[in-house]
Write a structure and sequence with these properties.
This protein is an alpha+beta fold. The chain contains 15 helices and 29 strands. It is globular. The chain starts with a helix and ends with a helix.
Length: 620
């Protein structure tokens, strides 16, 4: 439920929501003209889904909403240029509001169903007609697309096939929560947030980054793209979903329907570190409105894309503490359940491999500790310090559970542990393994100097990583635990977001996790003016839809402190080493680094700055 502030600002919320819908839907429509009635043609028949979930959008009745959605759906399925509304049971009267409401329906179909994968939702033109019985009404609407007609069939087939291929990997025997979890993991592993969204020069690039098409084309997109693809995939496996919008946050995410309840899922913000595949947060998976409000989503203008207030939906809180909460790496399906890597409460460098069996009827899970790994990810070039926490990433292929250590790959099979691979000297030069996933017979590993730095990806054929049953790894770093089964209510999640810190290898410290609050949406606001049609049903006047566009606002980049030479968010021994190397002429120093390292503030980088840096490090 919304908080008191949200209730007091209900009117403001509804006004703001209309603005965000206009901005999301109608941008880049400047100068668009309403088409003449004679230019609108009926489209080929296509089987349509049940659009009752949309309810009544704005001034449209529920029947008008569903009929308009079905007509638009058929038009998109046929790759039509226009659709005909003149056959609707009740004609849609001409007004600024009805134009906007039809645009909302148009965008909702594009965002939620695969027929709209290449749809361009930020502008539309309307045809007008009039009759004695119905007066002036909206007789039709243009449909536009991201790609040119000559490329459409091939690009749509490729994109739709990619969507189907993902959906086909979902096990139909899983519960709806498990299906939603699997797709959440898949998107966070395979796609990254598009930080370049505000640098694109044309409509194709701008629209692509807000579309699932862009995710497949570039491997990255903004929150609209994540939300849309997640919703489409959920529907493919029989789960209803609708986008949630917030102008205040400049953000969109999903409401997901499980049974008789709805839950918030924000895949974009759970994709915490897009440089490392498999490093995934679960802070915003299957959450209540109260939880989201208390954790980075506080705003009074949440609305579903249909215009309905979120608190009109039955949003539940019974999954706020799901078993998925206590891990920051991939939760992978394994032996009829799910394996999650969770840090030991007292010894943070130890990761426990917990096998969960989820009970959809009770929303709880039984867990078995099947294995543990004690490993430290050391600060690059500084073996005396390490990053607090465990960065193990698992990935199961059949009965083989692959997982990462800092510079090695291992497998857990049938209760035994096998060494499979060590990084080459070339790979070690890039750092340690902070990400991994398997797909199509290959393993992909992300190697980086720190948990938050950019990574370099390498691939290894799985045929080179087959466990040798005669070569069981018995190092002291790796221990297989005595199996102990416990029945749990859902595990409690830690919601504190902090930057990664370092500590002496012999010192136990509090755990820090990295979290990225990233994602904004391209927003545009349109105002529509109309001119009454005055003659017969075959005559129409034209009206101009004028719009102003507003670029999305990306969350500000982290402010780096003076003294943070390598830009990893930490002022420590590593920075001292690098500055020393620079002063000895061993390594270069950039202008940006020089600005941060002029600690003595005399306009030059010298031993005085080095002395100041050492004092900062010692003081901390």
């Amino acid at each position: 439920m919304r908080n008191e502030k949200s209730k007091k600002n209900s009117d403001t919320s509804r006004k703001a929501s209309k603005r965000i819908r206009r901005r999301l839907i109608a941008g880049a429509a400047a100068g668009a003209m309403l088409l003449m009635q004679s230019g609108i043609l009926p489209v080929r028949a296509a089987q349509t889904p049940d659009f009752s979930v949309l309810g009544a959008v704005g001034t449209l009745t529920a029947q008008q909403t569903q009929e308009a959605a079905a007509i638009i759906y058929k038009g998109l399925a046929a790759h039509a240029d226009e659709v005909d509304f003149s056959g609707m049971t009740t004609k849609v009267a001409v007004s600024n509001d009805t134009f906007q409401d039809l645009l909302t329906v148009y965008a909702t179909v594009i965002d939620g169903w695969d027929v709209g994968l290449l749809g361009y939702k930020r502008s539309a033109n309307f045809g007008l007609a009039s009759s004695r019985r119905s007066g002036t009404y909206v007789s039709g609407m243009t449909l536009t697309y991201i790609v040119d007609d000559a490329d459409y069939d091939a690009e749509y087939a490729r994109t739709a096939a990619a969507v189907d291929a993902i959906a086909e990997t979902v096990d139909p025997s899983w519960s709806d929560v498990e299906k939603a979890l699997y797709l959440h993991e898949y998107l966070a592993i395979h796609f990254d947030y598009d930080h370049d969204y505000d640098s694109y020069a044309d409509d194709f690039e701008t629209e692509s980054c807000h579309s699932p098409y862009g995710l497949f084309l570039r491997g990255k997109g903004v929150c609209e793209a994540y939300t849309s693809l997640y919703g489409i995939l959920l529907r493919k496996v029989g789960i209803e979903s609708l986008p949630v919008l917030s102008l205040t946050l400049g953000h969109t995410w999903n409401l997901v329907n499980i049974g008789d309840s709805w839950y918030h899922v924000d895949v974009t913000w759970d994709d915490a570190n897009d440089a490392h595949a498999g490093y995934i947060g679960h802070s915003y998976f299957m959450k209540s409105s109260a939880y989201m409000t208390a954790h980075s989503h506080e705003a009074s203008d949440w609305e579903m894309i249909t215009g309905a207030a979120v608190d009109e939906a039955a949003v539940a809180s019974d999954l706020d503490e799901g078993f998925w909460c206590d891990t920051h790496s991939t939760i992978t399906p394994y032996q009829g359940g799910w394996v999650a890597i969770e840090a030991d409460e007292s010894h943070k460098t130890t990761g426990w491999f917990r096998h969960y069996l989820y009970d959809a009827a009770t929303g709880t899970a039984t867990s078995t500790d099947i294995h543990s790994l004690d490993a430290t990810w050391y600060v690059s070039g500084d073996p005396a310090h390490y990053y607090v926490g465990t960065y193990i990433v698992p990935s199961a292929v059949g009965e083989v559970l692959y997982y990462t250590a800092p510079q090695s790959i291992y497998a857990y099979v049938g209760g035994e542990v096998y060494w499979l691979y060590d990084l080459t000297d070339e790979q070690k030069a890039y750092g340690d393994i902070y990400g991994m996933y398997t797909e199509d017979g290959m393993m992909y590993i992300d190697i980086s100097p720190s948990p938050t730095a950019a990574s370099t990806r390498f691939s290894i054929p799985l045929t080179d990583l087959r466990p040798n049953v005669t070569d069981v790894e018995t190092t002291t770093e790796m221990t297989t635990t005595t199996e102990a089964t416990t029945t749990t209510t859902e595990a409690t999640t830690s919601t504190t977001e902090a930057t990664t810190t370092t500590t002496e290898a012999t010192t136990t410290t509090t755990e820090a996790t990295t979290s990225t609050t990233e994602a904004t949406t391209s927003t545009t606001e349109a105002t529509t003016s109309t001119t009454e049609a005055t003659t017969s049903t075959t005559e129409a006047t034209t009206t101009t839809t004028e719009a102003t566009t507003e670029s999305p606002t990306e969350p500000p980049a982290p402010v780096l402190e003076d003294g943070d030479f390598d830009g990893d968010g930490i002022i420590g021994v590593t920075d001292v080493i690098w500055l020393t190397r620079c002063l000895h002429g061993i390594s270069p120093i950039s202008a940006e680094q020089a600005d941060r390292m002029d600690l003595y503030t005399d306009g030059s980088i010298d031993v005085f700055d080095l002395a100041m840096l050492k004092r900062i490090v010692v003081g901390r």
